């Protein structure tokens, strides 16, 4: 028999951890196991030892094949490759590895492209996430398996008491993928349409302070910290609608949980798997916004879509929509379907020579292979871009390794780096090489007129939010989309 060993680096309460629990429950404790490994970026040898110990424990429980399932980062995948190399030498042909496509963001696509030679297959949580991998992973190596959820008892929603329209959001609070600063605009749109509304937000993340400030000005928005999944149910059964303004989702575990509670979801068009299984007006509402829309445009569109639905069918119509959403999710995410989709992959029980070669090559210097977020020609691209713009000074957007990689190339041209923008509140007040780090809302204090997006993977998402900078009188510039004629960002192999 074959089992699945899921490894989460520094696992904490969050969507992927909850997802892992659902997978383990669906497979059964005899075939599924989840480990919270040390962060491999900090101590990769410790992370490898967790993989090895977890796999050996599964062998001792009677399994004859163990499939490793790393998540979230290149270092986690690299640690899995090192562990697979060691385990295969101990017990040949009894180790496999799969990747998982949780969302359709560029980071996940490039992560799986980088480690494709190590994998038996890539399991995609939705048809949309599979489609996003078209250019990275061959079709015969992609399997769609919707995240399994147990139906449980029918939610006790009871008769609705009179009062404001009740909305709820659960999940990470951040501006780019989740686009959570759209939430207050939903409330604004509904109130403009004469619909009294209250919104409950449950979660945490880098946008919490900005969201809290907006909520305080608008009123009727209550922010709660993250809670255990079992504590979500009262919030979901109390709400009329679940709102999800994300730019992209693999499937959206939050909206699945809400639907199971009889709370119909409101999602955005073009948001990947968030729309999967939803027909507008039947199992939920799909607004006309896309990934490029800013927070205000998105929130107003979602609020107006809700108002239209209420005018058409009233609150009873929303309740009926919630019941249909529940029935749809029960069918789409049936654990029995999930097991039937996953079992053939686990049962393959073969290790190819190309896998062994890749695992061995990663083992030589795993953290080098793990790094794929900075194109090898990033300094040259950045220098070419700022030279073409003729800028005397520039603000860099992004306080990570990409900025460090391009810094010297920019300064070598005599261009002053006035400061750095970063969306992590913890970085505000820091400095990089003497240049101050500020939040995007304070960018105008840096005494420069131009912002250069310092990110390859997140350039599109930051570009979509440039209005917040342009409203401060700043010009925003891209590196990669602006220079498509240069050679490919990543060298083959």
Can you describe what's shown?
The protein contains 17 helices and 18 strands. It has 493 residues and is of the alpha/beta class. It has 3 domains: 183 residues, Rossmann fold (3-Layer(aba) Sandwich); 168 residues, Rossmann fold, CATH 3.40.50; 100 residues, 3-Layer(aba) Sandwich (Rossmann fold), CATH 3.40.50.720. The strands form 3 sheets. It has a 6-stranded parallel sheet, sandwiched between helices. Strands 9-8-7-10-11-12 form a 6-stranded parallel sheet, with helices on both faces. Strands 15-16-14-13-17-18 form a 6-stranded mixed sheet. Helix 3 links the parallel strand 3 and strand 4. Helix 2 packs across helix 3, helix 6 packs across helix 10 and helix 9 crosses helix 10. The chain is flat and about 70 Å long. 47% of the residues are buried. The C terminus is likely disordered.
Brief digest:
The chain is 41% helix and 17% strand. The protein is of the alpha/beta class.
Which key terms come to mind for this protein?
17 helices; Rossmann fold; 493 residues; 6-stranded parallel beta sheet; alpha/beta
Number of strands: 18
Q: Mind telling me the CATH class of the largest domain?
A: Alpha Beta
Q: What share of residues are in beta strands?
A: 15-25%
Q: Can you tell me the residue ranges where pLDDT is under 50 for at least 5 consecutive residues?
A: 486-493
Q: What is the strand arrangement across the widest sheet?
A: 2-1-3-4-5-6
Query: Mean pLDDT, rounded to whole units?
Result: 89
- What's the number of helices? 17
For this structure, the CATH topology of the largest domain is Rossmann fold
Computed over alpha carbons, the radius of gyration is 24 Å
Number of domains: 3
Q: Residue share in helices? A: 40-55%
- Could you tell me how far the N terminus lies from the C terminus, measured between alpha carbons in angstroms? 34 Å
Q: How would you classify the quaternary structure?
A: single chain
Structural class of the secondary structure composition?
Answer: alpha/beta
- The CATH homologous superfamily of the largest domain corresponds to Glycogen Phosphorylase B
User: What is the CATH architecture descriptor of the largest domain?
Assistant: 3-Layer(aba) Sandwich
Let me know the largest β-sheet.
6 strands, parallel
The coarse overall form would be flat
